[in-house]
Design a protein that fits this description.
The structure is a single chain. This protein is an alpha/beta fold. 37% of the residues lie in helices and 21% in strands. The protein contains 9 helices and 11 strands. The strands form 2 sheets. Strands 1, 2, 3, 4, 5, 6, 9, 10 and 11 form a 9-stranded mixed β-sheet that branches. It has a two-stranded antiparallel ribbon with strand order 7-8. It starts with 20 loop residues before the first strand and ends with a helix. The N terminus is likely disordered.
């Protein structure tokens, strides 16, 4: 894993009787979506609270700066010179004021109990990570009866996050999860080798490594938000071959790191079939060479300890 860079200034730790939560919002050119997200976070019932914005955008937004000035006691803002979701996540937890951390996307809406519901589960003994409930604005709900599991035979996360109850899970979704600083430190942070493309599977890899250190990973349907999937901004790309390369790179990291040796050939075959499907659907034979390059680089990255 790319080494987690030491922050220029380590934020002081708080020891309040009521645990504080730092909500970390990585953002990239999301404008009004981000401001709406921040207003919902400012309305949270829980205090003490810090909202830490890691802005990777092209320029600062005057309206965002006004919002920050009005709530300087809660909003901590960093306009950073780098891009990459895993790096932004690492920067966020390194700078966070509190030891309970909540990650949300910059295009979500939530009610005032989101932080409270996360803390109810995350503060229990032995729990290191909590995935929250998600209502996707532009998708049909995934079966609420399918807990999130990780399939080592295909190296893919499966299951949904639309359930309302609480249960154990094997992975979380990046737009809504909380984690203890101790669990993040045990796992050595988010693997920045997964920054390729849209950073697919970075949260899956983190959850699997957190569990490997003995921390429980739970799902809490009541810690709920709506994910709007903004049509622009963020780390997505529309270039097919680049997407296939990123998919192959990141999934091969999972294959080498989390699949057993006898499962790897099957998982690699699944990946090859996916690349062929992309090449056929988009009439782009270059997808095959992109997948091969991504798999080679991902295999190398997966062999390095995070």
């Amino acid at each position: 894993m790319t080494a987690v860079a030491a922050p220029t200034q380590v934020a002081p730790r708080r020891t309040d009787a009521v645990p504080g939560m730092t909500v970390i919002v990585p953002t990239l050119n999301r404008g009004g979506f981000l401001r709406a997200t921040l207003r919902d976070l400012l309305a949270q019932d829980h205090r003490p609270l810090e909202i830490l914005v890691v802005d990777q955008g092209n320029a600062t937004d005057p309206a965002l700066m006004d919002l920050r000035s009005q709530h300087a006691d809660v909003i901590t803002y960093h306009h950073v010179p780098f891009r990459g979701l895993p790096r932004a996540r690492n920067f966020g937890w390194q700078q966070a004021r509190y030891d309970y951390l909540l990650y949300v996307d910059d295009d979500i809406r939530c009610g005032p109990m989101l932080v409270t519901e996360h803390l109810k589960v995350l503060s229990r003994d032995g729990v290191g990570m909590v995935g929250g409930g998600i209502d996707e604005a532009h998708q049909s709900p995934v079966s609420a009866n399918a807990p999130a599991v990780y399939d080592r035979w295909s190296a893919t996360p499966k299951g949904g996050f639309s359930a309302r109850e609480e249960h154990a899970v094997e992975h979380v979704k990046g737009c809504n999860y909380s984690i203890r600083r101790t669990a993040m430190m045990d796992a050595s942070g988010v693997d920045e080798a997964l920054s390729v493309g849209a950073a697919l599977y970075e949260e899956t890899d983190l959850a699997l490594r957190v569990a490997a250190f003995g921390h429980r990973v739970r799902f809490c349907g009541a810690a709920r938000l709506q994910h709007l999937a903004a049509p622009s901004g963020g780390c997505r790309t529309d270039e097919v071959a680049a997407n296939v390369l990123a998919l192959a790179h990141n999934r091969t990291i999972l294959i080498r790191r989390h699949s057993r040796p006898y499962q790897r050939p099957v998982a690699l075959a699944h990946l090859a079939a996916t690349a062929v499907a992309f090449a056929w659907h988009y009439r782009r034979p270059s997808c095959l060479s992109s997948a091969l390059r991504g798999a080679i680089s991902g295999w190398r990255a997966g062999g390095r300890a995070p």
